[in-house]
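Re-running Transcriptional regulator to confirm reproducibility after the cluster update. Everything else is unchanged from the original entry.
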Amino acid sequence: MELKDPGAELLTSLEQMIFKDMPQASLTTRNSIFSEYEQLRQGTGLQLDDFASAMGVTLAHVLEWEERRTQPTATELKLMRLIQAKKTLLQ
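Result of re-run:
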């Protein structure tokens, strides 16, 4: 039996509810993941330290993404989409 991550499942469900009317893009290349990351982070309007706090990661972790040394996981990208959507809804 496959163990499922309840946090990842919750993020997936929230993402599906928020973005149900938008077409889903398939991100298959490393560059497109970083491009999406950059768009999402900039779209939040948050400073790096505030963004790290909202993501629940360290500033060093965010800097790894900024410098393209590591790429965000699918779950982290989902959380970024939700943070950006919340910011957009509150404006």
